[in-house]
Amino acid sequence: MNRLSNSLVAADVAAVLHPYTNARAHEQKGPLIIDRGEGVHVYDEAGKEYIEGLAGLWSVAVGFNEPRLVEAAVRQMQKLPFYHTFAHKSHEPSIRLAEKLVEMTPEGLDRVFFTSSGSEANDTVVKLVWFMNNALGRPQKKKFLARTKGYHGVTVASASLTGLPNNHRDFDLPAIPVRHLTCPHHYRFAHDGESESEFCARLIAETEQVILEEGPETIAAFIGEPLMAAGGVMPPPAGYWPGIEALCRKYDILLVADEVICGFGRLGSSFGAVHYGFTPDIMVLSKQISSSYMPLAAVVFTDEIYQAVADNTNKIGTFGHGFTASGHPVATAVALENLAIIEERHLVENARQMGDLLQVGLAPLADHPLVGEVRGAGLIAGLELVSDKATKKPFDPVGKIGALAAEAGQEEGLIFRAIGDTLALCPPLIVTEEHVHQIVQRMEATLNKTA
Ligand code: PLP
């Protein structure tokens, strides 16, 4: 059957502008329509089975048909399907989830603000920090430090924090004050012959130089993903985060860990910050918080920030920020159940064990003629394809072979995400040894098909 004569495909092409999609190519190609999910698998309309090697969008920790999440949603829907948290109103699921997040996150993170998406959460971070610094009588302390290739979302402020050209090009973002520092990815950004520790020392020195150049009194916060994911799965060099943390403390700069992907066990530790040994002032959480069954995100922050903000709300009369769905009862009820499952089934420990297997299984693919680097941590991995292994020369144009590989992967029954020419894997936390072996086998078959 010609795919475009399928009525759902045709209706999609006729009506939908897709996120992160070349719209003209989509008109020719149409969507892959996913019909249902079960465990680590999803099934298309024709019934073909795929391992969801990216857990949807780095999201579905507990698998695609967890009945307990469905039941939690139905229970809450029947009791109170919606209520808000504005103007002194509240409801139990949002209170219990806030309590749970304070308990789970590292010591010192004691206050929670809910949003529906990671982008809204990062916009909230920007506004919270600005509001706080105005309250503290230091209105000049507003700049953010972020990283090239960092990903923090697509709303106007969060897209400004994001360090990827496609999120800026032709969108005329009003410049919020952000300096993007060098991406801490040794393979791509180290100088010739520079060791990982020399590279790390250079990045820390560069950060300090930028702080001094701009003036520490003008810099509000440093934001980063513990392991940069959506920009291409790039773990930091050893010592990077403790070095950044020390600079933040020295110059009174808030440290924000964007844990939207790393949080809740992805790296085989509770949080990315715990994995890399640093303590942020603010954590941004989403995706695996509810396995994305319901849209939800949270900003978790210190009591010190809270006290400054609270004083100012008293002066002004209100905290003029919040969303209709902040703390949505169904989303927070589902998240509570999801976090209970992660604990009961020891999924963080499973991520650590299966993650080790995945990294060991993928490592030999570095010898494949197409592959420049295999990298990752825990249950997240990236394979970067290059046209010349010795010089690391990328394919021209970047993204073409990645897209071909993603198609070949689908034929092999493995869905992953091509970020340029890096093939990203981030399977559900419930994967078993057998799934991991299948992922590795199918990735190898994919590379052979693409070569
Ligand atoms: N921050 C990080 C680290 C992310 O990976 C993402 C999305 O992938 C976001 C923020 C944005 O989240 P959302 O797509 O829910 O707005």
TrEMBL record:
The keyword Transferase applies. InterPro entries: Aminotrans_3, Aminotrans_3_PPA_site, PyrdxlP-dep_Trfase, PyrdxlP-dep_Trfase_major, PyrdxlP-dep_Trfase_small. It holds the Pfam family Aminotran_3. GO terms for molecular function: transaminase activity. Its cofactor is pyridoxal 5'-phosphate. Keywords: Aminotransferase, Pyridoxal phosphate, Transferase. CDD domains: OAT_like. It comes from the Bacteria. NCBIfam families: PRK06105.1 (NF004767), PRK07480.1 (NF005682). Belongs to the class-III pyridoxal-phosphate-dependent aminotransferase family. This is Aspartate aminotransferase family protein. It comes from Halodurantibacterium flavum. The lineage of its organism: Bacteria, Pseudomonadati, Pseudomonadota, Alphaproteobacteria, Rhodobacterales.
